[in-house]
Amino acid sequence: MIKLIECPRDAMQGIPEFIDTAIKAAYINQLLEVGFDTIDFGSFVSPKAIPQMRDTAEVLSLLDLHNAKSKLLAIVANVRGAEDAMDFPEIDYLGFPLSVSETFQKRNTNASIKQALNTVEEIQNLCEVKGKTLVTYLSMGFGNPYGDPYSPELVAGFVEKLDQLGIKIISLSDTIGVADAPLITSLLSLQISAFPHIEFGAHLHSRTEDIGAKVRAGAKAGCRRFDGALKGFGGCPMADDELVGNMATEVMIATLEENGFDLKLNKPEFDEAMKLAGFVFNP
User: Fold this and answer.
1) How far is Cα 140 from Cα 263, in angstroms, rounded to an integer?
2) Domain range for residue 196?
3) Which residues, including other chains, have CB under 8 Å from residue 195's CB and lie 6 or more apart?
4) Domain count, the chain
5) Of 77, 235, 266, 270, which sits most exposed with the smallest number of CB within 10 A?
6) How far is Cα 133 from Cα 71, in angstroms, rounded to an integer?
7) How far is CA 235 from CA 48, 64, 152, 204, 245, in A?
8) Gap between the Cα atoms of 37 and 4, Å rounded
9) Helix (H) or strand (E) holding 139
10) Which helix (H) or strand (E) holds 102?
11) Could you tell me the CATH number of the domain that includes residue 35?
């Protein structure tokens, strides 16, 4: 079964003009009607770092979760953010960005990799106590532009450390869109075979013309968890001067269905979400 994680948070976070809270909530409520496995809806991070997400708690209060099949995920960057997210029983998953690049870890969370690993352990302990699940994103998981060390063996070392902490979901993240199909297949295959008890996801950024090949490469490797954003909006504002957009969900859906996967989505509601995305991101 394929799990699609729709990421309006990732799509919105780098937009400099503040999106009205009611508009955010209306958009996410429409996404909840589609039947995605999970909605990455917001983040509990410093409003100075990501001002667009300063209203995450208010957005959550406006969501209609009655009969919603989708689970909610919020990104956190430190223990304080995790503690804030713990106050909301509606949130199922906490996501933490751990980077295999020392430079990007400092840019993204103002911490070293060693400090970030300690934070992961603390948040994992909180999640176990509070009944939530931690999703760890391995940022720069397919390479980085900073000249920091990178290799598949390095990634495997990070996965080993996370496995020792009891992390059950790890999403390999191509933060700047550098991965090609062969690397995606080989890296995911290696991790999935070595750690069959861990659920591996792919959070890939991509040019539109490369999305289909990347999805097929991930599926070929056995990956069944894919992140995307409608129309490919977004990208990490901490990563580089030129943002590479998210994987366009509509292209991922078409690719997966062409390859025989039944995604069990409500297509009329998806069409409405696509129309609303055009309004939210191109007012």
Assistant:
1) 28
2) 3-281
3) 159, 163
4) 1
5) 266
6) 11
7) 18, 27, 23, 10, 5
8) 6
9) strand 133-139
10) helix 102-109
11) 3.20.20.70
Closest by CA to 108, choosing from 116, 127, 170, is 116
Is residue 59 within 8 A of residue 42, CB to CB? The reply is yes
How far apart CA 54 and CA 47 sit, in angstroms, is: 5
Per-residue confidence in pLDDT tens, the chain, 283 aa: 999 999 999 999 989 999 999 999 999 999 999 999 999 999 999 999 999 999 999 999 999 999 899 999 999 999 999 999 999 999 999 999 999 999 999 998 999 999 999 999 999 999 999 999 999 999 999 999 999 999 999 999 999 999 999 999 999 999 888 899 999 999 999 999 999 999 999 999 888 899 999 999 999 999 999 999 999 987 554 444 345 689 999 999 999 999 999 999 999 999 999 999 999 987 5
Contacts of 85 (CB under 8 A, 6+ apart): 44, 74, 76, 91, 94, 132
Task: From 141, 160, 219, select the one nearest 185 (Cα to Cα).
Answer: 219
End-to-end CA distance of the chain: 35
Q: Rounded distance, CA 112 to CA 207, Å?
A: 30
Residue owning tokens 């001067």: 241
- CA–CA–CA angle 132, 236, 64 (5° rounding): 45
- How far, in Å, are 6, 218, 239, 243 from residue 234 at the CA level? 12, 21, 12, 8
How far, in Å, CA of 250 to CA of 263, rounded?
A: 12
